[in-house]
Amino acid sequence: LTLCLSICQEVKIFRALILGELERGQSQFQALCFVTRLHRNEIIPSESMAKLRQKNPRTVRQAEEVRGLEHLSMDVAVNFSKGAQLSSHIHNVCAEAKEAIYTREDDVKFWLEKGVDGSMFEVLPQTSDLPDLQRCKLCADRWKPCICSYSLSIEWYPCMLKYCKSRDAGGKVSSYKCGIRSCQKGYTFDYYVPQKQLCLWDEET
């Protein structure tokens, strides 16, 4: 799992590399990219992280706060060759997932209002378009299109700044930045695949 943030364009990119099962006719691995809007105050500014370097950076840390699961319907495909207009990171982060970059129609509307070229987006088939479209775990035919579901968890990320209080000689109390608060968060992404063969892990959930 890779999480990439492009704060200026308000873009958040998740990349997942899934090891293939050769006995099921899959290639060595499968790559997925999920691109969503990065909301303000969702993560602390990079300038603050640079100033608040933590001791023992190699220590495996536990998140102080567990945030709720977010379930997202990724109903739009992103064209890899044009994706740099949305975020320069897409070219590097999603290079192995050129045909599997997904986003949401709600996020697309936000980016279009900011002047992003709409030609990089393609609305994917939905249940309303294909009445027989099922969830992949319910679909018996591996060569039929279906709605795939993929879940991931970010075990630790800097979500908030910590503030400490100090008192001066005159007794006046003031607060100052003194650390980073960490969070854990899970995501589930639903998206269209042209054949169930691209979503065999969904059988196991």
Approximate strand percentage:
35-45%
Q: How far is the N terminus from the C terminus?
A: 19 Å
From the spread of the alpha carbons, the general shape counts as elongated
Strand and helix order? EEEHEEHEHEEEE
Round the Cα radius of gyration to an integer and report it.
20 Å
Low-pLDDT segments? none
Count helical runs.
3
**Which percent bin holds the helix content?**
under 10%
Q: What's the total count of β strands?
A: 10
Mean pLDDT score, rounded?
A: 85
User: What structural category arises from helix and sheet content?
Assistant: mainly beta
**Strands across the major sheet, in which order?**
1-2-3-6-5-7
| Domains (count) | 1
Largest β sheet strand count, sense and barrel closure: 6 strands, mixed
Structure description:
The protein has 205 residues and is mainly beta. The chain has one domain. Helix content is 10%, strand content 42%. The protein has a 6-stranded mixed β-sheet with strand order 1-2-3-6-5-7. A hairpin with a 4-residue loop joins β1 and β2. The protein starts with a strand and ends in a 12-residue tail after the last strand. The model has no long low-confidence stretch (mean pLDDT 85).
List the helices and strands and how they pair.
Blueprint lengths: L1 E5 L4 E9 L9 E9 L8 H6 L13 E10 L1 E3 L10 H5 L7 E3 L1 H9 L7 E3 L10 E2 L10 E22 L5 E21 L12
Parallel strand pairs: 3-6, 4-10, 8-9
Antiparallel strand pairs: 1-2, 2-3, 5-6, 5-7, 9-10
Précis, in short:
By secondary structure, the protein is mainly beta. The protein has helices spanning 46-51, 89-93, 105-113; strands at residues 2-6, 11-19, 29-37, 65-74, 76-78, 101-103, 121-123, 134-135, 146-167, 173-193. It has 3 helices and 10 strands; from the N terminus they run βββαββαβαββββ.
